[in-house]
Amino acid sequence: MYTTYWQLKEKPFELSPDPRYIYYSKSHEEALTKLIYTVRDLKGAMLLTGLYGCGKTAISRVFLNELMGSKYEIALITNPRLSANELLTEVIYQLGGGLHEGKAKGELLRLFNEILFSNLNLKKETILVIDEAQAIEKIETFEELRLLLNFQQNDRFLITLILIGQDELRRRLKELPQLRQRLIIQHHIDPLGEHDVQEYIEHRLKIAGAARKIFDPQAKNLIYRYSSGIPRLINGIADMALLEGFSQNKEMIDEEIILKVVKDSDLQSIRLGEKN
């Protein structure tokens, strides 16, 4: 609706995790480096956490794109509210082992073992990524993930496990010391600082085709203040600001527009609630 008005090729602040728009703060760069290191150096497992909306999923998609090719077989679980058997069944299916609903645990483990050694013989690495892992409901499912790391040959793991989740995941893992000990490589993605928020906004506008400045410095400072540096909130505020600026025939997004968007979105009360 507003893209033509602002002379943009596309909307710059969509909420979908488009790898083209990824902005690499220091924390995001470290996260990607550790993910790639974990896989390529066969470290077995890694834990990646961050606040909701901080860019975990976007980084994981960039990471998975890095692994695309014949060397890796990847299972990605994005809705892990599964029992241990259901999780194992889905992993086997995604790794090309067919659908085996209702099979006994022993049969599923045998099939999984066959897949791992088949990949090994084909010189392929097996990767299991669990996104939103804090949503796992049963301790038995976490225990199943730990046991999958027991599939080893000599001094190497046959599978790499990547757990991605919100802060709650770290708290839950404190109750699971045996699994937590396997997750030596860890990284927590921090919210963006004030300078990074300004760079983030300009980066996304540039990717969308902006040929001039659209947000003035004061507007970007307010976005930082009301988003707390969380990319998902930055996107929401900036997107609505572009719409509001278009409706008011503004030449640039200023403080007035940001304050109106924040008020209309009730972000002020959300922030007050977070402080209480």
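The record above closes out task 2.4. Task 2.5 opens with a second protein, given below.
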Amino acid sequence: MAKEFACTHEIVTAAHRAWSGSTWDYVAGAALTETTLRRNRYALDSLAFLPRILRDVSTIDMSATVFGQKLRIPVIVAPMGSMDQMCRDGAKAAARAIARFGTMQTVSSVAGHALEDIAAASDGPKIFQLYIRGDMDWIKAHLDRAKKAGYTGFMLTVDGPYYGLRERQLIHRWSLPSVTDPTRHIQASVTWETFAQIREYWGGHTVIKGVATAADARLAVDHGASAICVSNHGGRELDHGRGAIDILPEIVAAVARQADVWVDGGFVRGTDVVKALCLGASCVGIGRLAAWGLGADGEDGLVRTLELMEAEIFNTMGLIGATNVAALDPEYLTRVTPMGPTHETSAFRHLGDDPLR
């Protein structure tokens, strides 16, 4: 079935048909007015390409290297919770798909399967992402498990000390995890000192995910982060935040090549990825798009989603005159006024002007 998807529009439609309304709202929705989510799309649509012509683009290299791992494209799958709701086998299906395609998975501690089971599902490179629900001994126990299971790196998500108020779900009387999980409040006490202790104990590649200011990017470098992931959690936590790609150039400048800079938040097309690479990102994380691929046809659906994104990246690079990722820079971009509405599915023009419900 998955090979029959000719474009990403069809994948999004298939996921929408396959899921219950509550699952769709969980994946597609965001906090309160969903302004941050819409700003992610608006910011991406505010950039247009400046193509260069008469260059030999008969060969294009889209590969990238992240933490010593060569990836087929500079796109990784972002950590996602409750993946067992998205398709059969959830995070394990994702692990198999990501390894088959040839990129990297970041595995959430609330993905729905044990970190060991996800690691065993494929031999592809993986980063373990942790939401903190205990003291340092609790954290060290999880780090030990991740090391033993062979994870390439560790990621600490820092932009969710409190759970976002997601009204799409609240309207249907969904209960906040902070209400049902008695340990959820511990996340609010995490500090730079906590990160320093984690980094020292882990001893390998560490990522801070959820950086939204240059000041915090500099602190992350000072505290030894290997990579900084510019992110607003896809708009799912803080409402009225800035678009992720608008923040990216400031973070790149603040980091000054002292750490890798990643970005996620609303990236659903190959053109989105190329824009981020032009502005200095070393790789781009996809969350909702990966979830839609899983919803459309499980493991095969995610493989096909990544293949379609690869085709879009290839096509975009060829048409703007860039033969490899290193050649991409801000000179390929200019600011414009976006056209039309912006929402979680507005990048898929043939689905219509209104968001799917």
